[in-house]
Design a protein that fits this description.
mainly alpha; 9 helices; 78% helix
């Protein structure tokens, strides 16, 4: 990589991280605006990728708008009303997708219907969970810091896994999906992420070392699975990157792949932890 490309990659990475941090720390308007844009771009990339052999701009736009709508509906003034309308919107979406598959005369209608629904589960659902986490009032263990922690731990895991893997990696992790990932890098990423969790515990109220250690461990494990899963998708469609919107980094999906699997796992953990602690 030449100096110009390295500089471009570095600047793009800094801008991306700054925007994400602005969305997390700014909360409210900043969170909704930035994460709505990220969601829309990620959905469009996904549907463009999965419709590679049967492109349909209308389908891409419809599914992207649907996902963004699902993300915004819970923000209605009355949260119960928002969740009710969200449920109705999801059912209407499914009815439309299934009806279109039945009446459409195009090829691969079943595959397109499955891809449409899967994209919402794979991308929109984790973003909804991020929104729910961001709106928690702190009554759920350390919830006010959870959103920031997810991103910090993912970044630590990715960086540590890359550095340790580059220096000491010899044994492939899952070679048929990602030839460059090594077991040594994976272990290094997990270890450094747990250390980051201990630091987080020290810097946040309560000194809850157990909570943040498990939180960090889950983020590292499922973040890696998310990275590998997106690699599987790209390998299936014979693509190197999901897009090129971030210079030197690829697409939005390439940046949030770990997040998409780690977030549901963390949300489940936080719910279970709150139940266990409450008892």
């Amino acid at each position: 990589m030449n100096l110009k490309n390295l500089l471009t990659r570095t600047i793009a990475g800094i801008v991306y991280i700054a925007l994400v941090l602005l969305g997390i720390l700014g909360k409210g308007f900043f969170f909704i605006s930035i994460f709505t844009i990220l969601l829309g771009l990620a959905l469009y990339e996904f549907y463009r990728l999965t419709e590679k052999n049967n492109p349909s701009t209308k389908s891409r736009v419809f599914n992207t708008i649907a996902g963004v709508t699902f993300f915004l509906l819970p923000l209605l003034p009355q949260i119960k009303m928002g969740l009710t309308i969200l449920s109705i919107a999801l059912l209407l979406y499914l009815i439309l997708i299934f009806s279109n598959a039945v009446f459409s005369k195009k090829e691969n209608t079943l595959r397109n219907a499955i891809n449409s629904v899967f994209g919402q589960i794979y991308i929109t659902l984790p973003f909804l969970l991020l929104q729910f986490i961001s709106q928690l009032d702190g009554s759920l263990n350390n919830s006010e810091y959870a959103l920031l922690a997810i991103f910090v731990f993912i970044w630590v895991n990715d960086t540590a896994a890359y550095v340790v893997g580059s220096l000491f990696g010899k044994n492939k992790l899952i070679e048929h999906i990602s030839p460059k990932k090594t077991i040594e890098g994976f272990i290094g990423g997990v270890c450094f992420t747990i250390i980051a969790g201990l630091v987080f515990a020290k810097l946040t109220p309560g000194d809850n070392y157990m909570f943040w250690s498990i939180f960090a461990f889950i983020t590292a494990i499922f973040g890696t699975i998310g990275d590998l899963f997106e690699s599987l998708i790209k390998r299936t469609y014979n693509l190197k990157d999901s897009g090129n919107i971030i210079p030197g980094h690829g697409g939005i999906l390439d940046r949030i792949d770990s997040l998409l699997i780690a977030t549901p796992a963390i949300f489940i953990f936080m719910i279970i932890w709150s139940i266990v602690v409450a008892q």
